[in-house]
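Marked as duplicate of an earlier ticket. Keeping the data here for the record.
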Amino acid sequence: QVQLVESGGGLVQPGGSLRLSCAASGSIFSISAMGWYRQAPGKQRELVAGVTRGGSTNYADSVKGRFTIARDNAKNTVYLQMNSLKPEDTAVYYCNVKGLSRALSQYDHWGQGTQVTFSS
C-alpha cells in the first residue's frame, strides 16, 4: 500500500509564501508523476502543478510565475513552493502520486490534504 504524508499548509498573509511537501512511502516500485491539486469551497478540484519522473513540469495558468514544483526522486518526495500568495489561492491542497506498486499494479494515490488559509 502507498502512503502519502503532506505538510506545510497553514495560515499566510496575501503576498506571503508557503512550501508544501509530500513524501510517498510503502509498496512503491516506481513513480511516473507527482503533483499538487487544490479544491476551494464551491469549486471543483483542479490541477495546480505536476512533475514527471523525468523532470517535465506543468502548471495551471493561475499559478505560473508564482509557484514552483520540485521533486526528489531518491526520497519519493514532491514540493510546492508557493510565493506571492493571493486570497484566491485559499484551498485544500492535495498531493497525488501515480506509478507502479511493488506488485506491478498501477496506482493513483491521494494524500489527506493540507489547508492553506489567509490571515488577511
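See parent ticket for discussion. The CA atoms of residues 40 and 88 lie 8 Å apart.
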